Amino acid sequence: MQRELSADFDRFVLDRSTALLRTAVLLVGDVGHAEDILQTALMRLATRWTSVHTAPEAFIRQVLVNLARDRWRRARRRVSEQELTNAGVVTGGRDPADTVADRDAVRRALARLPGRQREVVVLRFFAELSVAETAEALRTSEGTVKAHTSRAVARLRELLGEKITENVHGV
């Protein structure tokens, strides 16, 4: 039984680490810090695998959000636009050269959102979670998720123009 759980954990890490790293990068705005919080999140997941192996994705996303928030609290400052702009983005294989400028603009716009709005946008649109899953990950109500989403999308539209609806999934 223990070997099966260990193999399941290893499979989960291999299958999901790239997507989880992308989520972490978008949350903290820096590849190095994203790698650090992902490693910490995976260690926490490993120690709790027997109890969360049926829903590891939800658990690890919640840990990533909490670790990102802890980082923001410790720093007592927001991630600057420059840091997020310079952050590399890990992609899952398709990276057409003609979308690089759009991705950069989206990252800069994300950096200008308040923390909660950024978290909601990252989880809803980049991690492709439902409203309910996002609310669970952020430990808030679905109404709050919807409100933050609405405000964030409106602000992103101001910052980016209408191309946000076309390119938000391409980052």
UniProtKB/TrEMBL annotation:
Residues 19-78 form the RNA polymerase sigma-70 region domain. Belongs to the sigma-70 factor family. ECF subfamily. SUPFAM superfamilies: Sigma2 domain of RNA polymerase sigma factors, Sigma3 and sigma4 domains of RNA polymerase sigma factors. This is SigE family RNA polymerase sigma factor. Keywords: DNA-binding, Sigma factor, Transcription, Transcription regulation. The keyword Transcription applies. The lineage of its organism: Bacteria, Bacillati, Actinomycetota, Actinomycetes, Pseudonocardiales. It comes from Lentzea miocenica. Residues 104-156 form the RNA polymerase sigma factor 70 region 4 type domain.
